[in-house]
């Protein structure tokens, strides 16, 4: 799964003024590897100005759309997003990893389900895939989407969502919330906050009867919606969320620097990836296990390096590590010994990480 494949771009479509969607041509011999589940993402790699750049982007197509398409929204200072929006054309190629991620629930054609999705900005990308696939794959289920943007013009995939509404009139409920465009219903104006969620949930949504909720957007919004759902009686196991970015923790970095100065211990590290084991020494509280392994030539998989995408997921088979941040692994995975290498630092004399046990 950590291997990159060179894929040719089949189509580049302008979706809004600052976002494009990109479809890839999948060769026949790679179609099984690039079969995806709704809500998954791709890790892309290219070289910009002599430097290797990796980014993770969610798949926006439904599982039965017959194409593999992602969306890339331009972000301020974003090297890859600017490159994608300004320069990528059909016929060009990018290095792409097979689909990954667990931002979904298994579909059941016999289920009479009711799902909620809450998205803001480009967080709609995996949500669109989930809604498309669920409404088609579960013909008896319903979906409610709460989607926040600055205005209707900036709402990514708005036309596709409205087409879906026309196709599934009784099964899809769309609620657009705009912060800079006035709407007739005052509740639909502003940002998606915990207070707004409480008002919306109390007026027209029985949260306790929802089969699952999917949240994707800025970290503050995601946490507010999650907490609102829990307060309304929804079990944590039914709340699924995905972050594109996570706030850094400068205090932890400063603490590590101070600890390294006071106690310069060294751990013996072994990383196992693609059937190969590589051993090296690592001063504690210095580099993450991911950065240290790749500095030694291990070629370990990664994308965001922020504890968000789970590309660097691995299992601790010996020793003990400390994980600074985790926005990707479930509690049961952590209990089973899985960690995010980009956020993990050794705390024992010996540590063995296995990237092949997924």
UniProtKB/TrEMBL annotation:
Keywords: 2Fe-2S, FAD, Flavoprotein, Iron, Iron-sulfur, Metal-binding, Oxidoreductase. Residues 267-358 form the 2Fe-2S ferredoxin-type domain. NCBIfam families: PA_CoA_Oxy5. Residues 2-106 form the FAD-binding FR-type domain. It is an enzyme of class 1 (oxidoreductase). It comes from Pseudomonas idahonensis. This is Phenylacetate-CoA oxygenase/reductase subunit PaaK. PROSITE patterns: 2FE2S_FER_1, 2FE2S_FER_2, FAD_FR. Its EC number is 1.14.13.149. GO terms for molecular function: phenylacetyl-CoA 1,2-epoxidase activity. Its cofactor is [2Fe-2S] cluster; FAD. It holds the Pfam family Fer2.
């Amino acid at each position: 799964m950590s291997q990159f494949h060179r894929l040719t771009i089949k189509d580049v479509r302008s979706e809004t003024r600052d976002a494009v969607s990109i479809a890839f041509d999948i060769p026949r011999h790679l179609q099984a590897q690039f079969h995806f589940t709704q809500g998954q993402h791709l890790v892309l790699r290219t070289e910009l100005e002599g430097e290797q750049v990796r980014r993770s982007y969610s798949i926006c197509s439904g599982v039965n759309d017959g194409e593999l398409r992602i969306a890339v929204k331009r972000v301020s200072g974003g090297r890859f997003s600017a490159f994608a929006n300004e320069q990528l054309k059909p016929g060009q190629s990018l290095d792409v990893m097979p689909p990954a991620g667990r931002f979904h629930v298994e579909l059941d054609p016999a289920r009479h389900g009711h799902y909620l999705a809450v998205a803001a900005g480009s967080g709609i990308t995996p949500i669109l895939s989930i809604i498309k696939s669920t409404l088609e794959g579960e013909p008896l289920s319903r979906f409610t989407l709460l989607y926040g943007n600055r205005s209707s013009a900036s709402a990514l995939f708005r036309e596709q969502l409205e087409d879906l509404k026309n196709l599934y009139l009784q099964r899809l409920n769309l609620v657009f919330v705009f912060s800079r465009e006035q709407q007739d219903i005052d509740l639909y104006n502003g940002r998606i906050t915990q207070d707004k969620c409480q008002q919306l949930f109390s007026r027209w949504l029985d949260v306790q009867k929802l089969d699952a909720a999917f949240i994707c957007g800025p970290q503050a919004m995601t946490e507010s919606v999650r907490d609102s759902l829990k307060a309304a009686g929804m079990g944590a196991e039914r709340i699924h969320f995905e972050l594109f970015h996570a706030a850094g923790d400068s205090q932890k970095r400063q603490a590590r620097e101070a600890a390294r100065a006071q106690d310069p211990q060294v751990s013996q590290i072994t990383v196992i990836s693609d059937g190969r084991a590589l051993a090296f020494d690592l001063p504690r509280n210095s580099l993450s296990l991911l950065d240290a392994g790749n500095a030694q030539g291990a070629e370990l998989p990664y994308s965001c390096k922020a504890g968000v995408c789970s590309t660097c997921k691995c299992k601790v088979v010996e020793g003990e590590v400390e994980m600074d941040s985790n926005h990707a692994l479930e509690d049961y995975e952590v209990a089973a010994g899985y960690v995010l290498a980009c956020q993990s630092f050794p705390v024992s004399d010996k540590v063995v990480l296995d990237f092949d046990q997924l």
